[in-house]
Write a structure and sequence with these properties.
With 351 residues, the protein is of the alpha/beta class. It has ten helices and ten strands. This is Glycoside hydrolase.
Length: 351
């Protein structure tokens, strides 16, 4: 038993050599401006929640999960999806002292999620060619604008499973042009099966774990159940000797917000708005993970630069915490970044 304790201590204290100077990431996934330049891209408002990082989230499009062609720079793109326009958002972010992650996404017509792409061999080759062209343009943009992190893919579950060699090759190619920190955003139920974590700087997890079906869960209920997920993430982090970033996390302001969030992605107006449930979801999550050494921080989903997207009933039931009570909860925890010099403890979650 004594030997096991010594081994565990050495593993924890040597896993993250830069942790003594590390500051948590208190980030947001910033939606692209849809209609054109916004007054400073809505970025100054992020100071209300004490954020210090912004993830830029340009989208490319696919006509279906069986059509391998990737469309970009089309009429479907929002204004700030396009690199030439995204430059102004980068400039605004730097003006206010934010660090940046570039995190491109795919939108699949008819389903939204790109995690179930299905092609024959020729289709996969077409998709790979399209993907490489798209992502290398994004990587070069990230390098040219000194963007600190590049998340080169998000929740491409079936693509990673079917084409692991392609991703290993594309990571090497990205490294040849991009000098910042590189990561991948794995779905919450898939992070343990990603074969290329050793090639990346962080483990990225989109942390939409199904916690509880309670309509308005209490903080203690969310925290208690989240601790089980946190312990699994902690153990995985130490095995891989890499910190974990929640590349996406967050809860809608609705009934049952911490349950199976993917089942209600297409529903908004018909759901009951529940602002307290959103607050309790965030508070319970933060209590479970924020002070853990394995947890490098995260990017909440999401924040809009245009007011039209976060006003009215639909927005009130959406993920954004803008102008909702959850802002104060987030600000309390993100504010710890500026009040503490350490990353947290080496303790096990829940102990």
């Amino acid at each position: 038993m004594k030997n096991w304790i010594i081994v565990l201590f050495l593993l924890i204290t040597t896993s993250f050599p830069l942790s003594a100077q590390y500051k948590k990431i208190g980030g947001v996934n910033l939606a692209s401006a849809e209609f054109g330049p916004q007054p400073e891209s809505g970025i100054p408002a992020l100071k209300r929640i004490q954020a210090n990082w912004i993830a830029l989230t340009p989208f490319a499009y696919m006509d279906s999960k069986t059509d391998p062609v990737i469309h970009y720079r089309t009429e479907r793109n929002w204004w700030a999806d396009i690199p030439e326009n995204m430059v102004s958002v980068v400039q605004d972010a730097r003006k206010y002292g934010f660090k940046l992650m570039l995190k491109p996404h795919f939108w699949v017509e008819g389903s939204g999620w790109a995690g179930t792409l299905t092609f024959e061999e020729e289709g996969w080759r077409t998709w790979e060619k399209n993907y490489e062209q798209f992502i290398m343009e994004q990587a070069q943009f990230a390098e040219d604008h000194k963007i600190e992190m590049f998340c080169f893919a998000t929740e491409l579950k079936s693509a990673v499973k079917n084409r692991p060699e392609f991703f290993t090759r594309i990571i090497r190619k990205i490294r040849s042009v991009y000098s910042g920190k590189l990561l991948y955003a794995a779905n919450w139920d898939d992070y343990m099966r990603i074969p290329f974590w050793d090639q990346l700087d962080y483990i990225g997890v989109d942390a939409y774990f199904p916690v509880t079906e309670t309509v308005t869960p209490s903080v203690d209920e969310v925290k208690t159940i989240w601790i089980d997920f946190a312990n699994q993430l902690r153990d995985f982090s130490y095995r891989k000797r890499k910190q974990i970033i929640f590349t996406e996390y967050g809860y809608r302001s609705i009934d049952k917000p911490v349950w199976k969030q993917w089942e209600i992605e297409w529903v908004s107006d018909s759901l009951n708005v529940n602002l307290q449930a959103q607050v309790n979801g965030y508070e319970g999550l933060f209590q479970a993970v924020w002070d853990e050494l394995w947890f490098a921080g995260g990017f909440l989903w999401k924040w809009y630069p245009e007011k039209v997207h976060y006003t009215g009933l639909k927005a009130n039931s959406d993920y954004t915490p803008q102008d909702k009570p959850a802002e104060k909860t987030i600000a309390k925890w993100y504010g710890k970044i500026y009040n503490q010099t350490s990353t947290g403890s080496n303790k096990q979650s829940g102990k």
